[in-house]
Request: fold
Amino acid sequence: MKTVVLKFGGTSVGSIDRIKKVCKIIASYKKKKYKVVVISSAMSGVTNELVNKSKAISNNFDLAEYDSLLSTGEQVSCALIAGRLKHIGFKSRSWLSWQLPITTEGNHSGARINKINIRELNKYIKNGGTPVVTGFQGINKNYRITTIGRSGSDATAIMVAKYIKAEECIIFTDVEGVYTTDPRQYKKAKKIKKIFYDEMLEMASLGSKVMQPTSIQDAKLNKIDINVKSSFVSKSGTLITNSKKSFSDQIITGISSTKNDAKITIVGVKDRPGVAASIFKPLSKNLINVDMVVQNISQNGKNTDLTFTIKSEDLKKTERLIRENKSISYKKLSFDRNVSKVSIIGVGMITTPGITYRMFQALALKKINILVISTSEIKISVLISAKHAKKAIASLHKEFKLD
Ligand code: ADP
Ligand code: ASP
Ligand code: MG
Reply:
């Protein structure tokens, strides 16, 4: 008997009607004689509402309480799923993470699963039951509830699949799989049949929301193949894997873009060793993630300009930290909230020369100005004005024959 982990995202369990539909999907696996473990997200919108409530109480809401609050959404959806499964004749019950437990390490709101005790789950499955486990949450060594980062139910599903030694892990969502770019943004996006972990990890980290980046890291590390498919229509989805069998020969696999990046330029900083470190030290201490960085070559050997990007929500704090930083001097600070990072991703670029040129040329033909560039072995990212993002994606999608 095969064991399968079925994970349902927020939209898939977004209403009572949707939960009933999801239970039909679960039932179809039970009828095929699978052993099933269900992982669920909160009903769509619920976690955001909880975030807003925490902000209304305090602009400095305690992070341990934040996790305790945010984890409640999954309790509701899992109880409703288990209740519905019982209603249609299956043995089922819900499990909150601490009841197993799923233990985590690291900071509140961004913890990471380090162990799952599957004893109870195994016993229950052996007796024909279908456990429904809350995604997104765990407990730490002080028995406090933790959460593992937004969209974290993906990572819960992968880790449960690892510990339970599942043959399959299926992520059910509101699109048919992983597409060449967000299908809601660009109608000509195409469903990808198979994608390597490394490519998916880059796409996820560079803004393709369909999978959470940590979950892909966990899947790669533990060699767990992931199937991404729709809970709305019954169609084949996308396989995320390392297996090289029957991959297409596309050079570029996908295009990602970000929505909430901001660019900061510090004009006229001293061009001497240690300046960049002095600028970034307080940001790092305050857990502000700096992404792209460029420093111009100094014209006079004295002063230079430094540009970097951060998440828009960190802009105010970053501005304050720079202005309060007594260890640096500069002429001017400038900000741009309306930027977007557009990236092309594909392992094919390792062996194909000229990709950078083709990307830049395609953007130039559309008169799109590139503000910052960063590259790795399998991706090229450019920072551009957010108002050009759609146009850029369309022209790159066409240039690399993804249409
Ligand atoms: P869930 O609630 O099921 O976890 P998410 O909202 O986290 O679903 O992820 C699914 C969404 O990801 C889709 O609705 C789609 O708009 C977005 N998305 C962004 N990039 C891509 C992509 N390359 N392929 C598919 N979906 C994408
Ligand atoms: N409910 C959580 C969130 O909205 C976790 C998840 O959906 O995976 O981020
Ligand atoms: Mg998701």
